[in-house]
Amino acid sequence: MRRRGKPRKGRRSQSGTLWASSDRKGTQSVTVPETRLSFPDGPRSALDQALSELVLNAQKVLATQGRLRSLLQASQAVVEELDLAAVLRRIVDVAVDLVGARYGALGVIAPNGNLEQFIHVGIPDELAAEIGHLPAGHGLLGALIDDPHAIRLTHLGEDSRSSGFPAHHPPMDSFLGVPVRVRGEVYGNLYLSNQLSGAFSEEDEELLTALAATAGIAIDNARLFDETRRRQRWSAASAEISATLLSDRADASLELLADRFASLADADLVCVVLAAGESTLIVDTARGKLAKQVKGLVIPSAGTTVGRAFESGQPILSADGGASLDQPDSQLVLGPTMVIPLLASGRTHGVMTVSRSTGRPRFTTSDLEMAADFAGQASVALELARGRSAGQKLALLEDRSRIARDLHDNVIQRVFAAGIGLQAISGSVDDPDVRERIIEEVVALDVAIVEIRTAIFALTAQTSRDRGSIRHRVIDMLSELASLFDQTPRLVFTGPIDLLTPPEMSDDIAAVIREGLMNVVRHAEATETVVNLSVADDLVVIEVVDNGIGVVESDRRSGLANLSARAQQWGGDLVLENRARGGSRLRWTAHFEPEPLRKES
User: Fold this and answer.
1) Which CATH number fits domain 248-383: 3.20.20.70, 3.90.1150.10, 3.30.450.40, 1.10.1670.10?
2) Model confidence pLDDT, tens digit, residues 21-41
3) I need a surface site. Which of 226, 250, 434, 473 has the fewest CB within 10 A?
4) DSSP string covering 259-318
5) What local confidence, expressed as pLDDT, does residue 334 receive?
């Protein structure tokens, strides 16, 4: 039995049909189908547009936030390094990653406006070797150097400033370049190409410009750190070399100085150049790969970089070496070079040349300043060492004079007496072979007497500097050049050289002996050398004899031509010939008008 009450409300079936409820009399209502309301698709409301723009801007903010985070990471990666070479490489690496480029490079600008360094990323080393030399700074690269403002191109080849690419170079399309400034000056430029999405955007340019600013700070810090370390090394080396030069082990002071310079300056060639006369200089000491080729080289002081530094007493910084390979000192001034005078007591004692090979990094003014300070302190130490050595030599003069007296009064007399005795004995010997051998020994004793007399003169100090002694000048010259020979040349004087030789001939005699000895050093490959200077009547004869490889024809005979001209001025001649027993002989003769004998010095 159903419970009576109010009729139930209608309900909706799952099919969506509305069923009417029954009344109390059981009458059933009719079903009516459901109808849906639809609206036409009209214009979007302002709210919808605002929501769409908000979503789009939010996406842009997220993308920008990601790129800014990448910029911060890139900046941090750049400033973490302190080594300059590592900093430059890191800058290129992070720049490529920051803007999504395939190729990147950093060009460091040289003082002449070209590129002295070009650090590249993206091109394999094998392909870079096939391309050949690195860019010199022309075309678009040069345009950025001339006008240091950002350049952004969609198609690099369509720009009129583009000069094309060399053979084997990979194709490049989009381009973005920005300058890198250090303390307001343009240090170099960042070059990026081939953006992975097609073209560089304005946002890429802004990000790269910001990175370049950070890179300038990192480069400046790295340079200051590098300069600080180099100053510490120069300072430590200065203290070390001063202590060594002032010690009792300062025999090879110039060699030690050259070694320290080569190490501290990272140089390929270091030379110590000393005066060799009024207008000539000679390489006394050399260190480096080309040391054997330049040691003993004689160059004029006029018209050379080394000569200017020697005369002026001021250091010279050369960014690209000698102006011409035809210059006499081009073998010393290779590529980037510092020429530093060695000054002490107000005068120039010599010049130090410090060179790197062509293409290597140049020296900076800071390098020149540190090297000049080091050379100045070393020069003072050298001067003190020379003063101490001179004091020791003065202490030995008395012993040397005593030895000279003993040689003259005792040894020569005994050798001479032995020769007279042997000569007398030879007259009473019937065997011709024995007699011949005795005569040979007598001749050998005569030669020994001549050499002993030369040694006695070398042991005797020069008492007068006003008139000058040719023999002392020649002895000093041999002492100066002795280090160039494996065995010191033997010197023989014959005749009253200082009594008969005109004073105006002394320069010619010194020039002939020096040129003869330098020819032996450069060409002869000899182990023994003898210099014989003799005077008899009105004739001066100089002979330089060696046991080397003999005379080899050469296109450069200017030195011999000068010696021949000197001989002709005195009515003499010059002969350079091979010896029958090997080696060569240079014979120079000069005639003069005999004068009354002057008092021996």
Assistant:
1) 3.30.450.40
2) 444 445 455 455 555 555 455
3) 434
4) HHHHHHTT-SEEEEEEE-SSSEEEEEEEEETTHHHHTT-EEESTTSHHHHHHHH---EEE
5) 76
Confidence of residue 17 (pLDDT cuts 50, 70, 90): very low
Distance separating alpha carbons of residues 122 and 128, to the nearest angstrom: 10
DSSP secondary structure string for all residues of 340-356: EEEEETTEEEEEEEEE-
Residue with tokens 């004793």: 445
End-to-end CA distance of the chain: 167
* Out of 140-154, 322-336, 538-552, least confident range: 322-336
Tokens of 401: 């004079």
Q: Is 574 helix (H, G, I), strand (E, B) or coil?
A: strand
10, 98, 330, 338, 369 from 365: Cα distances, Å = 102, 35, 22, 10, 6
Record the pTM: 0.48
Separation between Cα atoms, residue 97 and residue 87, nearest integer Å: 16
| Better-scored residue on pLDDT, 442 or 546 | 546
pLDDT, position 597 = 45
Query: Can you give the pLDDT at residue 59?
Result: 57
Kindly list the domain boundaries of the chain, sorted by start residue.
74-227, 248-383, 466-591
Question: What residue ranges in 43-127 does DSSP mark as E strands?
Answer: 101-109, 115-121
Pairing of the two strands 269-275 and 115-121:
unpaired
Q: Binning pLDDT at 50, 70 and 90, where does residue 362 land?
A: confident
Q: Which of 525, 544, 522, 524 is nearest to 533 (CA)?
A: 544
The CATH superfamily of 74-227 is GAF domain (3.30.450.40)
Torsion over CA: 384, 386, 392, 394 (sign): negative
Q: For residue 521, what is the DSSP state?
A: I
| 3-state SS record for 227-239 | HHHHHHHHHHHHH
Q: Are 412 and 449 in contact (CB under 8 A)?
A: yes
- For the domain spanning 466-591, the CATH number is 3.30.565.10
- Long-range contacts of 558-566, Cβ-Cβ distance < 8 Å, separation of 24 or more: 559/515, 559/518, 559/519, 560/515, 560/519, 562/511, 562/515, 563/511, 563/512, 563/515, 563/516, 563/588, 566/508, 566/511, 566/512, 566/590
Q: Give a three-class secondary structure readout of 58-72.
A: HHHHHHHHHHHHHHH
Closest CA to 95 of 118, 65, 117, 75: 75
* Helix and strand numbers, DSSP H then E, in the chain: 15, 18
